[in-house]
Write a structure and sequence with these properties.
Elements: H1 12-23, H2 26-38, H3 42-70, H4 74-82, H5 87-119, H6 130-134, H7 137-155, H8 158-185, H9 190-198, H10 208-221, H11 228-233, H12 242-270, H13 274-278, H14 284-295, H15 298-334, H16 338-352, H17 354-358, H18 360-389, H19 393-398, H20 407-442
Bound molecules: phenylalanine.
Length: about 450
């Protein structure tokens, strides 16, 4: 056990920006837009909002409560409140960090590559080369560069590395999204994009499949179910208001996802590329948008540069939180120094990204396993833990939050609603995901 005093955020704003930085990332832009396109536009958005409010928000507050209350990284935190029997859950969290960051770094590498295209050569023809750009040694090289940056920042520590990066980059990211949304609104033909995004097709609304996707997206986008928010909250003092923090974090995350939709859909539709939206896959954003940028001429290169820079920034602050889960566990449980932990864990994760860098199919399956099994499963067990096992979670959540009156509602959601919803989707999602894994292996 390390004897050095545990690092703390330098301010409440620093924590909130770091947590928003974790939440806002490729999930808000890449994943949110292709899922929305695939599942009927606004109907999916409404469902996603509902799940975020009733399932995501309670789990977020639960993670913050366990993290701040214990002042420990997830494995030690769960042992602190639940005893030895609960350490495996913490280990699963760390494993999820490994798995997610491995393919997340690959996609982040694509964003670096596409950002550079704006400077070297432009976007003409890029759409036809997605499969070559996204797979192979070059994809791995960009993943490596991205991981090196992530490792460097996490090695710098909570304040000097993570907090400083978030404080610098999050306002910039917000300006970029807002600026791009304004630009998109001024494109002739933008209305069709809005119509597609905001018109509702309720046909798939009540399917378990769409609910699963919405729940997976809510967890992924809010960085829930694997201890990332728990880890960040462990660097927080007891005088901080957690309920308000959780509402601010979730609100900012949803707002940026929504704004990203206001960027992506008008741009695609203004250039008449809607036919491609229907055939959306993990590659949608990286196929249709470069084509849109190519169609805008010289302006397209500037817009493309800003767009992919925004994606890269979002990805970076999220990747940092994924690595921090693993690093903080190595520091607390193995007694390693921070720099050593960042380098070794980050290096191992980079190698684990190789299959995702060489095969889109593998990347897609890793994403499904991460969401449908690790995050939703982790969220289920965690809600049961805080709802039923932990002593006095309300007292812990309430420290620094005098006057908050909805704790009884929080507890009821955690005890009944969250587990019921997650169980309902998991029953279907787990076998489906395992089939996808098998199909990949036997292919
Ligand atoms: N929330 C991040 C995003 O939307 C991804 C993430 C998931 C980060 C889980 C940390 C933990 O891109």
């Amino acid at each position: 056990m390390a004897n050095a005093p545990r690092e703390q955020w330098s301010s409440r704003t620093g924590f909130v920006l770091a947590a928003v930085g974790s939440a806002v990332g490729l999930g808000n832009m890449w994943r949110f837009s292709y899922l929305t396109a695939e599942h009927g536009g606004a109907a999916f958005v409404i469902l996603y909002l509902g799940v975020t409010l009733l399932v995501g928000l309670p789990v977020l507050l639960a993670e913050l409560t366990v993290g701040r209350g214990s002042q420990r990284s997830p494995i030690a935190a769960l042992r602190h409140y639940g005893g030895r029997a609960w350490t495996p859950l913490g280990v699963v969290f760390v494993a999820a960090g490994f798995l997610i960051l491995a393919y997340y770094g690959v996609i982040a590498g694509w964003t670096l590559r596409y950002g550079m295209m704006a400077i070297f050569g432009g976007y003409a023809g890029a759409a036809d080369h997605f499969e070559e750009i996204a797979q192979g040694p070059d994809a791995f090289a960009f993943h490596l560069v991205f991981m090196a940056i992530t490792i460097g920042i996490v090695a710098g520590g909570v304040k000097a590395g993570i907090e400083r990066t978030a404080t610098l980059l999050m306002p910039l990211l917000f300006l970029m999204v807002a600026g791009l949304a304004v630009h998109a609104a001024l494109l002739p033909g933008a209305e069709e994009g809005y119509a597609y995004y905001l018109d509702t097709d309720f046909s798939g609304f009540f399917s378990r499949e769409v609910l699963t996707q919405a729940a997976g997206q809510a967890f992924f986008s809010l960085s829930l179910g694997m201890g990332a928010m728990m880890t960040y909250a462990s660097y927080l003092g007891r005088d901080q208001n957690l309920p308000t923090g959780s509402v601010v974090i979730a609100g900012a995350d949803v707002a940026i996802a929504f704004l990203a939709g206001l960027v992506v859909f008008p741009m695609i539709f203004a250039l008449g590329l809607s036919a491609k939206v229907g055939s959306s896959t993990v590659g949608a954003l990286f196929i249709t948008l470069p084509e849109a940028f190519a169609g805008m001429g010289g302006v397209g290169r500037v817009v493309g540069l800003i767009f992919f820079a925004m994606l890269a920034v979002g990805a970076l602050t999220s990747a940092i939180s994924l690595l921090e889960v693993v690093v903080s566990a190595a520091i607390d449980s193995l007694g390693w120094g921070r720099r050593r932990a960042a380098l070794l864990a980050g290096g191992a994760i980079t190698l684990l990204g190789a299959p995702a860098a060489w095969s889109l199919g593998a990347l897609d399956v890793m994403d499904q396993v991460a969401n449908n099994i690790f995050l939703l499963g982790g969220g289920l067990v965690l809600s049961l833990f805080v709802g039923w096992r932990m002593q006095d979670p309300v007292g812990e959540a309430g420290a620094g939050a005098e006057g908050v009156r909805w704790f009884f509602l929080w507890r009821a959601l955690l005890r009944f609603v969250v587990p019921a919803v997650l169980l309902y989707v998991l029953i279907d999602a787990v076998p489906g995901t395992l089939r996808a894994v098998l199909a990949l292996i036997t292919a």
